[in-house]
Amino acid sequence: METCADTAVLSEVAELTEWPNSRKMVFNDHPAPRPLESLLAPGSIAVIGASRAPGKVGHEILVNLQQGGYAGTIVPVNPAAREVLGLKCYGDLSEYQLPIDLSVIVVPTKAVKDAIVMSARAGAKAVIVITAGFKESGPKGAELENEIAAVCHAKGVRMMGPNCIGLINTHHKMNATFASAFPPVGAISIISQSGALCAAMLDLAVGRKMGLSKIISFGNKADLNEVDFLQALADDRETKVIAGYLESISAGDEFLRVAEQAASQKPVVILKVGTTAAGARAASSHTGSLAGVDMAYGSAFKRSGVIRAENIEALFDYALALAMQPLPPGKRVGIITNAGGPGIMAADAVENLGLQMALPTARTKADLQKLLPPTATLGNPVDVIGDADPDRYVAAFDCLQQDPATDAIIVVVTPQSMTKPLELAKKLAAAHKARKPLLAAFLGGHSVQAAIDELMRVGIPNYPSPDRAVRALLAMADYAAWRNRPPRLVTRFPVNRRRVDRVINWQVRSGIKQMGEVEAKEILRAYNFMILPGHLARTADEAVEAAERIGYPVVLKICSPDIIHKSDFGGVRLNLANAEQVRDAFDLMMLRAHRRTPQANIRGGFVEKMGARGRELILGMTRDPQFGPMLMFGLGGIFVEVMKDVTFHLAPVTAEEAMQMLIGTRSYELLKGARGQAPVDLDAIAGALQHISQLVTDYPQIVELDINPFVVGEVGMTPYVADARMTLANAEVKHEQP
Asked: Which of 110, 493, 520, 627 lies at a C-alpha separation of 20 to 30 Å from 145?
């Protein structure tokens, strides 16, 4: 992570003497309420470590506070100075007789603790620790960070940082950072774990004339973190959209709860990095091997309604559209262009990203025909031809704006001799009724810059290419769909938990974490899964006896907690039709298993009734350390590792969410019955996912689960579990329920 308070902070020690140990103010040891108002909109700010030297962090923060127009009281603190930038400077806050709301601390690392204590005694309810050199620097720094966090907690002081660039509130005219840029007043608030990237985003926003509300760099988040700021900004009337850059999330459950509450009030757009690192635990199941860190965050964002940005450009693109335009009522997009190529680019992006090209009504086409020249294209895109002036563009826009079959409009403009981009921008703004979102793609550079500035001023987001406009519109449409989602109703099914308790208790007492097919199926049977008749055989004679009792044909499978992928070891034989085949298969299977894995614990062979043919699927679960159980769905058998066409969702899931897991795969059309294939029972698959959801929610001891394959056929055929396995955590024995 970047060191935001650089060596300039540490060099301040040349100007500072050690902070006095004696304090004149009396501190009340009972923690006070910890509101964030003192942080976000303070009436008075102390800068502890204020400097007279330009270029020093303590100097630049004072400059920014003054030049930004902050109307509150600024109290510089530096024992080596009596005046800084025309302001009276204090050697200690005890010399300043009035209380303060916020301290910005820019002192050497070892002096931060005393500065926090000084601030608390002066009545501060919040501190911003700019100084670096804490946990990002190693174990000793981490110790110091824990110490200052403990002091803040004991004193009832909220801390932002350490290792951050500070905070900006444009509505409060407060720039308590050492960043050089100060953006226009706006409705987008930014939170960032990285100070350096926060400064870069701030500079980009100023360059795009993008209005911002709050800019919050929270650094190491020793106290205040992303959850605190999401909660505060969700209730902030000056914030319409929350945009954020995160490297990690401190508490998964709390983040899910708060992010969902925030997204229910206003859009939350997050750029999450650090998504490719594998977990420390080696995954032993298909689900665990396919579910990485990125999948966990994707599932968490999907559940909570957070819009995920792929990069900084997307973060700004989405935030601008959401802040400036109304949400679309649907996914039908109308495109207006004065050039064929860019219009085709926009149409391709609409189709490729899952939006829909609007089909204008007959009346709309008739109106367009009256208003546009004969050479114009009246479908979608509406091509108003290269010689279109602003009035022709606006006439076409009015038609689509009134068209009931169009949910959103993208206007693509290339600078040609008749275009008059600035005039067009003004007339589009005047014509827009704000019932449907309008996004622009004025292509070019110098000749369209004044028009782009005007669009920003009047609240129409512009994008440098049509595909970026379409992606922003997709983010809006997905968020609108999430806002309009049905209430989350998780179904609870009647199950036999006593049977599950007995199996898990036995596994835990035995010290066996890898649960094989026999026990896993016993648990699934208790949760209403169809399990075919089967029996564990330890000898060939027992295998034949079991087959005779079950009835031919049968399947024979190796049973060992040490052999995960049975088919790789020749451990599965299908369609055994008589006793001789069962006996031969059993003997050969045991011989091969002992030769190939001599150390494996071979429990015998599992004889099972041969099931009906159907589509092989995989249903699974892996437990993420941050967000809990993640369900997986995809094609099963050998296809899961070859195609990796899987979807994930956090448990518990509703019926709608379970069905969305199916729809989210590339193979969904195949399951529905595409290209002459028989359709499978989709409702049965969604129901099975809900039963797994309930199982893994009821039993946190289960950390991984694979049902592979889960065989499903057409409606009327009962799906069944052909194979299954589970992994348990080192959990205490669960007492069986009476």
From this structure: 627
Distance of CA 327 to the CA centre of its chain: 20
The tokens describing 430, both together, are 């005047």
Instruction: Quote the pLDDT of residue 278.
Output: 42
Structural domain count of the chain:
4
Closest of 285, 200, 181 to residue 245, by C-alpha: 200
- How far, in Å, CA of 457 to CA of 435, rounded? 19
Identify residue 156 by its one-letter amino acid code.
G
Q: For position 537, which CATH number holds? A: 3.30.1490.20
Strands 408-413 and 87-88, by their bridges, are unpaired
> What are the tokens at 682?
């989709």
Q: Measuring CA to CA, how many Å separate 178 from each of 16, 75, 77, 444?
A: 19, 17, 17, 34
Query: Which element (helix H / strand E) includes 396?
Result: helix 390-402
Phi and psi for 223 in degrees, rounded to 5?
-125, -80
- C-alpha pair distances (Å), 102 with each of 14, 85, 373: 25, 20, 64
Give mean pLDDT, residues 443-447: 92
Q: How many CB atoms lie within 10 A of CB 422?
A: 19
- Taking CA atoms, 659 is separated from 96, 229, 668, in Å, by 64, 33, 10
- HSE-up (13 A, CA, CB side) for residue 303: 26
Domain edge (last residue) among 583, 609, 635: 609
Q: How far is CA 119 from the centre of its chain?
A: 36
- Please answer whether residues 213 and 239 qualify as being in contact, where contact means their C-beta atoms are separated by less than 8 angstroms: yes
Q: Kindly state the greatest CA–CA separation across the chain.
A: 101
Q: What is the DSSP letter of 465?
A: S
- At residue 47, the 3 state secondary structure works out as strand
Edge-first strand listing for the sheet containing 307-309 = 174-177, 166-169, 212-217, 185-192, 241-246, 268-272, 307-309
Q: What is the pLDDT of residues 684-694, one digit of tens each?
A: 999 999 999 99
How many angstroms separate the CA atoms of 529 and 721, rounded? 7
Distance CA 51, CA 87 (A): 11
Structural domain for 708, as ranges: 615-728
Per the domain annotation, does 193 fall within a domain? no
Q: For residues 571-580, b (16+ Cβ closer than 10 Å) or e, as one string?
A: bbbeebeebe
Beta bridge partners of 217: 166, 192
Q: Are 328 and 407 in contact (CB under 8 A)?
A: yes
Q: Are 221 and 194 in contact (CB under 8 A)?
A: no
Q: Sort strands 87-88 and 83-84 into parallel, antiparallel or unpaired.
A: antiparallel
Planar angle of CA 606, 607, 609, nearest 5 degrees = 135
104 forms beta bridges with: 47, 128
Question: How many angstroms separate the Cα of 638 from the Cα of each of 645, 711, 720?
Answer: 12, 13, 18
Residue 563 tokens read as 């052999």
CB atoms within 10 A of CB 151: 18
User: How would you class 380 by CB atoms within 10 Å of its CB: exposed for 0-12, middle for 13-18, buried for 19 or more?
Assistant: buried
Q: What confidence tier does 11 reach under pLDDT thresholds 50, 70, 90?
A: very low
Are 384 and 376 within 8 A, CB to CB? yes
CA 527, 529, 530, 535 dihedral sign is: negative
Q: Token pair 């835990």 is at which residue? A: 508
Which amino acid type is present at position 499? R
Domain boundary among 609, 628, 657: 609
Q: Is residue 183 part of a domain?
A: no
**CB 75 within 8 Å of CB 46:** yes
Does the pLDDT value for residue 23 go beyond 80?
A: no
Asked whether 318 and 309 are in contact (CB, 8 A), the reply is: yes
